[in-house]
Automatic annotation (TrEMBL):
Residues reported to bind phosphoenolpyruvate: R298, R334, N456, D457, R467
Name of the protein in question: Phosphoenolpyruvate-protein phosphotransferase
Broad class of enzyme this protein falls into: transferase
Native source organism of the sequence: Lactobacillus paragasseri
Residues annotated to bind Mg(2+): E433, D457
Location, primary (coarse class): cytoplasm
Highest taxon listed in the record's lineage: Bacteria
Active site, renumbered: H191, C504
Length: 579
């Protein structure tokens, strides 16, 4: 029977394919004593053989679909499976303790993990702890007769189903086969949703129960336009949604015609529509969608995609590649924003009660200055290759901003003294994503060249509603007058002090938000590359004279977010704008 689940539309498009459950099975076991230890050792050996065969298959498929580098991790796992020090220790444990293989595996794996994690002066060996964990999980699954999901080995079209997807899970999805994803939890501005948009994978998040409502292989529709997930659809539904997907694809073709057009309003006012990127790989989307700048390069993905902190040289290469590729158009690169929902496996930071309110972004950079300085040097060197903006994330106080700027100035001086070329077209800016900074926008504006409003965080901090928690998504209100007043105050503070103001939060690419922002006079709109042409098309239809009053009405007359949504919808209807 067909069942429709309501979630949050996280990435546009429609996917129709069998479900692939990316859900870890329950691997709990009971410790039992065994009398026939030889039989237990033989059972263990057989399972090691099965696990090896399975891993070899996974590795080969991963090599084909994701590339040799991504597949390397499986070689590391295979090494453990063939290492007599590891498997032999488990066999000895079975024999000596007369326990079942599950208990012997668990006991031995824990010992290995503790030893590896203790090697604090050897990052390479520390990383091996993760390999032991993964390999042990696989052996345990085989011992218990359960199946582990292997996303890297997907070789047919699927809609991935998961409780949640971390940004690194999302990075591993192979677009060729993963046609969409549906999750139990998450929000529209969680980083996995943002990545889905840049990968153009339709996504529905926050359905609460998809992992329970769908079985592996069940037919599943992910409607990323309206936020519906349909399990076991009827033939009529498959036809309906296939048509809906085709209509959306046709609309996208129409928008594509605007690729090389400037971003102008109906009354010929020019603005910048820029792209947000995570890695140099996203440049394809930047080009295909005619971005006029890069308004946000989230550098943390460079850190997340490497096995250890990326060196100054590796960072320099990545930044230079993007700056050169932009061919004279501005690139704004944000310093590392780790923390919140973005973690590094190799950076063992203390657990926090509230990671989004903890040591995140610039706060982390200030605690680990060496890492910050390495990045600043790479950025300064890359600035010689084109117009660059360096932007600091999560600034809350003037003291933080001044300290970051001071370190940047010192590093610039040092490089110049070393005879290294630094660009003269370098701007220094900050994100406005902490309400405290928005309130003091006039003061901050005197110290930077530009602002970029990070609404993804500004909304969550203003409304005290976690951006990734679907249970409070009703409070995560971009159109709330309180949020809009902070945005307007920021733009006014920037303009009164002679600097430009952009927005790189997802709200910049939102159809309802856009006319309000235009009415506020926002200068630059930076968004997932896939939203650019939709917004350019909308911009072309709006005459700024017609929406002059919109900002004030939205900030000071409306009392609720819903009223603002209606206000924009009615204004657009009156103006005959139907994008
Ligand atoms: C934001 O907060 O709006 C933003 C662009 O930064 P991020 O989404 O990476 O937190
Ligand atoms: Mg942010």
């Amino acid at each position: 029977m067909s069942k429709t689940l309501k979630g949050i539309a996280a990435s546009d498009g429609i996917a129709v394919a069998p479900a692939y459950l990316l859900v870890e099975p329950d691997l709990s076991f009971s410790k039992t004593s065994v009398s026939d230890v030889d039989a237990e050792v033989a059972r263990f050996k057989k399972v090691v053989e099965e696990s090896t065969k399975e891993l070899e298959k996974v590795r080969d498929k991963a090599k084909e679909s994701l590339g040799a580098e991504e597949a390397q991790v499986f070689d590391a796992h295979l090494l453990f499976l063939s290492d007599p020090e590891f498997t032999g220790a488990i066999e000895t444990e079975i024999k000596d303790q007369k326990v079942n293989a599950e208990a012997a595996l668990d006991e031995t794996a824990q010992k290995f993990i503790t030893i590896f994690e203790g090697m604090t002066d050897n990052a390479y060996m520390q990383e091996r702890a993760a390999d032991v964990r993964d390999v042990s999980k696989r052996i345990m699954a085989h011992l218990l007769g359960k199946k582990l999901p292997d996303p890297a080995a997907i070789d047919h079209e699927v809609v991935v189903v998961a409780y949640d997807l971390t940004p690194s899970d999302t990075a591993q999805l192979n677009k060729k086969y993963v046609k969409g994803f549906v999750t139990d939890i998450g929000g529209r501005t969680a980083h996995s949703a943002i990545m889905a948009r840049s990968l153009e994978i339709p996504a529905v998040v926050g359905t609460e129960s998809i992992t329970k409502d769908v079985k592996d292989g069940d037919m599943l529709i992910a409607d990323g336009l309206d936020g519906d997930a349909i399990v076991n659809p009827t033939d009529a539904q498959v036809e309906e949604y296939t048509k809906k997907g085709e209509a959306f694809a046709k609309q996208k073709e129409e928008w594509k015609k605007l690729k090389n057009e400037p971003s102008v309003t109906a009354d010929n006012k020019k603005f910048i529509i820029a792209a947000n990127i995570g890695t140099p790989n996203d440049m394809k989307g930047v080009k295909e969608n005619g971005a006029e700048a890069i308004g946000l390069y989230r550098t943390e993905f460079l850190y997340m995609n490497s096995k250890d902190f990326p060196s100054e040289e590796a960072q320099f290469d990545a930044y230079k590649e993007v700056i050169k590729d932009m061919d004279g158009k501005q690139t704004i690169i944000r310093t590392c924003d780790i923390g919140g929902d973005k973690h590094l496996d190799y950076w063992d930071l203390p657990e926090e009660m509230n990671p989004f309110l903890g040591v995140r972004a610039i706060r982390l950079s200030m605690q680990y200055k060496d890492i910050f300085i390495t990045q600043l040097r790479a950025l300064l060197r890359a600035s010689a290759y084109g117009p660059l903006g360096i932007m600091f994330p999560m600034i809350g106080t003037l003291a933080e901003l001044r300290e970051a700027k001071q370190i940047l100035a010192e590093e610039k001086d040092k490089l110049v003294k070393e005879g290294v070329k630094v660009g003269d077209d370098l701007q220094v800016g900050m994100m406005i994503e902490v309400p405290a900074a928005a309130v003091l926008a006039d003061q901050f504006a005197k110290e930077v060249d530009f602002f970029s409003i990070g609404t993804n965080d500004l909304i969550q901090y203003t409304m005290a509603a976690d951006r990734g928690n679907d249970n409070v998504s009703y409070l995560y209100q971009p159109y709330n007058p309180s949020v809009l007043r902070l945005i307007k105050h920021t733009i006014d503070g920037a303009h009164e002090n002679g600097i430009w103001c952009g927005m790189c939060g997802e709200a910049a690419g939102d159809d309802i938000m856009f006319p309000i922002l235009l009415s506020m006079g926002l200068d630059e709109y930076s968004m997932s590359a896939t939203s650019i042409l939709r917004i350019r098309s909308l911009m072309k239809k709006i005459n700024t004279e017609d929406i002059k009053e919109l900002a004030n009405k939205a900030c000071f007359v409306s009392e609720t977010a819903d009223e603002n949504k209606k206000l924009v919808e009615e204004t657009m209807k009156k103006l005959n704008i139907n994008d």
